[in-house]
Amino acid sequence: MVFRLVLGCGTICWQITEELSERDGGRLLVITDDESVVETLRDESVPARRADPTDHATIATIDPPDVIFVAGDRTDVNRATLETARDRFPDASIVAYMGGNATQADRDAFEELADHTVDPTDAMAGRVLEQTTRPAAETAIELRERLSAIDGRLAVVTHDNPDPDAIASAVALVDIAESVGLSADACYFGDISHQENRAMVNLLDLDLRNMGRDDPLDEYAAVALVDHSRPGVNDQLPEDRHVDIVIDHHPPRGPVPGEFVDLRQQAGATSTVLTEYVDRFGLAFHPATATALLYGIRVDTNDFTREVSPADFEAASLLWPHVDTSILRQIEHPSLEGETLETIAQAIKNRMQRGSVAVASVGRVGDRDALPQAADQLLAMEGVETTLVFGFNDEMVYLSARSRAADVDLGETLRDAFDRIGSAGGHADMAGAQLEIGILGSADDEEEVESIVSVVEEVITNRFFEAIETRPGAQIGSYTQTSEWLFTQRGGEDDSESV
């Protein structure tokens, strides 16, 4: 149990004492010579004692603490307290607040005796810099300039089959563009088939344009990518398409084009980044946009439990007053369709398990968004920590993986296993891939198709198990020749993309 000793209790002390008293069940004691402060702390159930923290006798009988925080307001008193504390507890870790009137001699003493010094001047300067430089004010100014320079209409393109984070980010960027007089459309390729995603779009009445691969983009003077960063990778844009704006939170897997690029890998969602921009542009949050952005953040951070950052909580606090909570509840609890339930049942029935890893093929699927729901359901089973569920649609096979194992990075695992025969990516605990099986198009009858499907199922299952078992940097050699042949015998144009 960690013992934390607070010596002196000025302004900065009040800001952290409550948190310290609740942290990890450790022991806390505050010593200050201000009787009113002691009484107030005790009323808040914080252990406190009235005594002079600079006096050796005050701390002579105290058990050695793990951490000492010198937290008075006056520099001279804090220096004396620090000298006393270091003399009495030479092995303790000491954090000392310098106060606002430090001389050079004071600074030298704090530097010598404290393990960490809190200098209010430096802290204030750092906070000012944080609020007035990248990635806040400067990037907002750059984005405004880039949007204002576009002469024509802007296409804000999500990745294929967009999730809530991508949809919300696109809608928010359209709002921002229109605030500077630029016409824009939120565009996507593929389908929005997941029940919650459809509910989000329909209930919030979000204006989205569904693009086809052959739809001309000539009407757009510029293109922005949100929640992905490269044209032709996880979207159906030409790979050489000029990109004006890229806003994403995923680590790039190659060079990122764009006149304006903001890759915020520390953010848990692209919606977090767009929330900051809406705020920086001084725009009012429309309830539909605010609700979509908050839902996007919640989904991508798994309700603030996965890859979450302080910026995600800040964004949520900005959005919450403008969110339509009744619609949010409806989005989060849509009814499951019969086909989705059948896919989940098929995954449970067909699962193959090795240790804590379960893999299941569900055969032919009409709704690819049933796959991640099936993967989630398998993960809820006892003894299962990592899942992969895949299914076939036309000449494509779609894969969805989930994990709660601390030593598994699913994004890297799927890339190791399938990048050479398709495209894959995602987060450490949730990822996906898709592979084109062009050879199915040349199969003569159903029996031949089923035979090919059976072989593909074996290839995918073994590749995934091997990638898990040989992480990191798996190079799957046993099945490379067979699988590469299967996934390159294509009956037409290559339109594979990542998930």
TrEMBL record:
SUPFAM superfamilies: DHH phosphoesterases (SSF64182), NAD(P)-binding Rossmann-fold domains (SSF51735). Coiled coil: none annotated. Residues 356-461 form the DHHA1 domain. It holds the Pfam family TrkA_N. One of its GO terms (molecular function) is nucleic acid binding. Residues 155-297 form the DDH domain. One of its GO terms (biological process) is potassium ion transport. Residues 5-98 form the RCK N-terminal domain. This is DHH family phosphoesterase. It comes from Natrinema halophilum.
